[in-house]
Amino acid sequence: MSEAYTQAWQDSIAEPERFWSQAAEVIDWATQPIRAFDVTDGWYPGGTLNTCYNCVDRHVAAGRGDALALIYDSPVTDTICRFTYAQLLSEVGRVAAMLASLGVERGDRVVLYMPMIPETAFAMLACARLGAVHSVVFGGFAPLELAKRIDDARPKVLLTASCGIEGARTIAYKPMVDEALTLSQYGVERVVLFQRERLRAEMTPGMDLDWAELRAATAADPVPAPVMVGASDPLYVLYTSGTTGTPKGVVRENGGHAVALAWSLANIYGIGAGDVFWAASDVGWVVGHSYIVYGPLLVGATAVMFEGKPVGTPDPGTYWRVIARHGVKSFFTAPTAIRAMRKEDPEGRFVQEIGTGALQAIFLAGERADPETIGWAEVQTGLPVIDHWWQTELGWPAVASCFALGDLRRKRGSAGFPVPGWEFAVLGEDGQPVPSGQSGAITIRAPLPPGAFRSLWNNPAGYEKNFLTFPGFYETGDAGFFDEEGFLHIMGRTDDIINVAGHRLSTGQMEQIVAGADGVAECAVIGADDAVKGMIPIAFIVLRAGAESDAAMVERVIARVRHELGAVAALKTCFVVPQLPKTRSGKILRNLLRTIANGEDFAIPATIEDPAVPELVRAAVLAQAER
Question: What is the DSSP string of 27-38?
């Protein structure tokens, strides 16, 4: 056990005021906060700052203008660009001048519907510079979903590009923006369009402005000075899918966000000034906000922005090339990316040939990392592979092995230990803690630490709902357990606990067993409706190259689950499918699989990565069911 980790966690829980006041000392405040926390005013009341200034200006002012700030690596366009902090300040300043010329001011909202290009990061930071609130919507989201977000945020300006590039596909953004604005009740005043060489878009007269032309027209304008805002003022609104079909706008505040991200980079990931950090995500997700754009820049590190996929752009070695080429020190990706590489390159030939350069650790998050995936990555790289857990609402990791605090305790299947600042409880339906090893609802004691959400945009009732089931605790919506050694195991959403003939079973536990079967590249276990037992578990598996026949594999998977969990598990159905439906962030769409298994009609979710996959899955299910 790491003494540094233990002391930090104990201090953060016993003396949060002192702990988080010290953490805030690394941030440049225009006005120092009165204290760390106030029940009414939240984190760092009285403090004022500008997040863009903390990410860019202050490093230039400190004489680090020539230090590398951002690396853009795009195998899909065969482009690599590098920006120093001085160059980043210039680029952000020009975009801020563009937005200011359109009347964007403190408190205004700006929606970004953008691909993974440097201009997206420039625009996010430019909004922060002006005190405006940005809301990034993943490029390629369906027009109706974009329209919902426009209507909720009511932005003054929408920034977009002519297209995004998803692997081998080119996705035209402009037609979707146009349709969204038609569907939207409120619309926007202006659309600013960045034209990409891959595909150029038609402009809408009177509404659209060309990004390059607007930049040239405002080139002589002075760079707007950073606008100082209150610590509790919103930096951004990031929408997640709501259970009612209406997206939830998670609000991130400036003060706590800056402090928490700076602390996490230094103490979880071991990243400081001059280090290279790569989060292989997208700026449309919270990981991209926290660890592509803001986190690395807050500590003066170098951030990598990657436009591509783990396989197919051009092969399963692309991630290793990026890591080796740019001297990445810590790497953050989703388990699904590792699974994709393993499926295409089970023997790890690419990583053995390319190597891992200066890499010290690999971090996984976004969905549960099964032990087989972690084991494969550790064997192939010889590096610690650290699963850790958090949510959009939380903003930064809440469960992890704090690598930089010397805590490398790991147990495959667990996300680690509570991070300093986070106090967890696993509660039963009666609201009481359950014994070690017993599954329950995973909750976090309120108030949540800096960086976590304190409101939902236009939805105070929706925010309060998170704290009603277990008074004094935030209900994460995940189920899991603490083991006797204190490791926290997060097995899946609470709705993934299925009731089979009166027995409560964890589909996450079954997935762990199925994933361990030799030849299984990926899997998902869901609960399907059953007239007799209420629900029954059904497995979906994707085979690795060279695996045995479908029928033999199905038989072996079913026998494996029965052997390890007993007959009560009742897993009797397993489908071999070509792919699993996933979101663009790599999460498996289990609700969609449940709908397919139940034989119900389904709509293609707005978040899906490949809209063709559900039909492929349904066809495979029907074909095997007829045998």
Answer: S--SB--S-SEE
From residue 479, give the alpha-carbon distance in Å to each of 4, 146, 259.
29, 31, 29
User: In the 8-state DSSP scheme, what is residue 19?
Assistant: H
Which pLDDT score, from 0 to 100, does residue 241 have?
67
Structure tokens at 522: 């990926």
Helix (H) or strand (E) holding 400, with range, is: strand 399-400
> CA-CA distance, 263 to 11, in Å (whole number)?
14
Secondary structure letter of residue 582 according to DSSP: B
Q: Cα(41)–Cα(39) distance, rounded to whole angstroms?
A: 6
* DSSP for residue 210: E
Indicate whether 516 belongs to any domain: yes
| Least confident range of 241-255, 345-359, 392-406, 608-622 | 241-255
Chain CA centroid to CA 275, Å: 21
Which residue range forms the structural domain that includes residue 428? Answer: 3-308+388-480
The average confidence (pLDDT) of the chain is 92
Note the pLDDT tens digit of each residue in 591-610.
899 899 999 988 888 778 88
pLDDT digits (tens, 9 = 90+) for 558-588: 888 877 766 556 688 899 999 999 887 777 8
Assess whether 461 and 594 both reside in one domain: no
Are residues 440 and 515 both part of a single domain?
no
Rounded to whole angstroms, the Cα distance separating 517 from 561 reads 10
d(CA 224, CA 126): 9
pLDDT at 245: 56
Could you tell me if residue 205 is inside a domain?
A: yes
Query: Phi-psi category of 60—alpha, beta or left, where left has phi over 0 and alpha has psi -120 to 50?
Result: alpha
Read off the pTM. Answer: 0.85
Q: With bands split at pLDDT 50, 70 and 90, how would you rate the model's confidence at 533?
A: low
pLDDT at residue 243 tops 50 = no
User: Cα 609–610–614 angle (5° rounding)?
Assistant: 115
What string of DSSP letters covers 329-354?
A: SEEEE-HHHHHHHHHH-TT-HHHHHH
Beta-carbon count within 10 A of 344 CB: 17
pLDDT tens for each residue of 314-328: 999 999 999 999 999
Token duo for residue 376: 């494969």
